[in-house]
Amino acid sequence: MTINDFFNLNPVQARRLIWGTVQKYLQQEKYCTALNTKSYGSLLYEYANEEKGLSIKWSKKHKVPMVRVREGTSPSHEQVYHLVNCVTHLDTKAVFLLMYSSGLKGEGIINLTIKDYKDAKQFRETLREEFTNQLANTQDSEEAKELRYVIQNLPAIIKVTFRIYPKRFTTTTSKGWYPAFISHDAEIMIDKYLEEYRTNANDEEPLFAGRLSNKKQGQIQLSKWLKFNIKKFYRLTGELKNTSPSLLRRSFYNRLIASNMKDIYREYIMGHALQVKSHYFDWDTQKKDVILQYLKCNFNRMSYDVTKEIINLKENGITKDEKIAELQKQIDYFRSEKFVTDLFNELSKTSTKFQEEPSKELDIKKIKKEDVNEFVRLRKLGYHMTYENSTYMIMEKEE
After folding, report:
1. What class, spelled out in words, does domain 77-303 have in CATH?
2. How confident is the model at residue 162 (pLDDT cuts 50, 70, 90)?
3. Which whole number is the average pLDDT over 265-291?
């Protein structure tokens, strides 16, 4: 069929032809191509038959989904940090970690200002002071233990209002707010981004400048960032082929569920049905429990909690400043390049392949993080990353 033959069809025939092509793309899961075929095919036909007044009428059954998300595509905790490692730009790393640890979607991220972030850190100090006063007045040992843990590990907390996230509130007169937590790792990355790129910015400017500061185009840009880096991650690891802009929010929600957070707390910090939750939830009396359960979910890269160990030692009356300093040195060592080198050397000594067949591939490999080609080569050979820091990765081959 030629283009003129297509123009000479009646609207029903033209619609049937276009929809047949669209369905072929849908079967191949090419959703953007399918949507464009439907839209531009209609426009082309109607433009050519404008003098005749012919147009194509579409019904609800002809709806094309923008993105199809498969079950099980939400990344695990480890995959989120591997994804962040694949990201090149500092602001993108900061955005991804903030989305993962807070559950905020694109609109909430784009509407944040630098003042919102500073207020979140100030609100943490206000809560810390309040919890410290509670600790001084409590006689319950279990309550005291929980308060100490919360005081030492308090995250920064954004007060999400109608201005930041309009869709989460029913009216423009909504005066309430709900908390969005910022993990320690996300806070470090945001601070680094602000220090390097936003030193002269005023408090009323968007937290993330550049293309994300345009509220109309920001969500589109954020979606492109996510999809681009997911594709890059897929090329490196073969994981997370299917995704959507809400990927990190879904991972956030999955982690809350996996950590057995109470339903009322989980739905509250997700921003679901806020008007209903206000009848059953009181932040002033339940905030300590909410924060405690959030901390147990652990949205930071490192799962080892030095603060908890120090608290236990203090309660048993064992430790002094020297013991605390010793524990801190251990944590610094585990995060250092020396630990990676020592680990590699130790594993190499115990590797039977290293001793018996030195000419073959070792079970253990140490590579620099920026050496993407070597990473891909080892992955194809069956190696998997078992440790990483800011400079190196340890790759180990499965038995």
Report:
1. mainly alpha
2. confident
3. 79
Task: Give the count of beta carbons closer than 10 Å to the beta carbon of residue 333.
Answer: 11
* Model confidence pTM above 0.85: no
Report CA-CA distances (Å) from 116 to 79, 108, 275, 362: 29, 11, 23, 50
Q: Do 68 and 48 form a contact (C-beta atoms < 8 A)?
A: no
Give the Cα separation of 290 and 269 in Å (integer): 9
Using an 8 Å Cβ cutoff, are 46 and 58 in contact? Answer: no
Query: Which two tokens mark 345?
Result: 């050397």
The answer to whether 271 touches 168, Cβ cutoff 8 Å, is: yes
pLDDT band at 118 (very low <50, low <70, confident <90, very high): very high
CB within 8 Å of 306: residues ≥ 6 apart? 327, 328, 330, 331
> What's the pLDDT tens digit per position in 319-374?
456 665 666 666 666 556 666 566 566 655 544 443 444 434 446 778 887 777 78
pLDDT in tens, 193-252: 999 989 888 999 989 877 666 666 777 777 777 778 877 777 777 777 666 667 888 889
Decide if 149 contacts 308 (C-beta within 8 A).
yes
Tell me the C-alpha to C-alpha distance, in Å, between residue 67 and each of 30, 31, 32, 125, 247: 9, 6, 8, 42, 12
In DSSP terms, which residues pair with 388 in a beta bridge? 393
Residues in CB range of 273: below 8 A, 6 or more apart: 267
SS (H, E, C) 353-374: HHHHCCCCCCCEEEEECCCHHH
Parse the chain into domains and list their residue ranges.
Answer: 3-62, 77-303, 336-397
Beta bridge partners of 285: none
- Over residues 36-83, the pLDDT tens digits come to 888 888 888 888 888 888 888 888 888 887 654 444 467 888 888 888
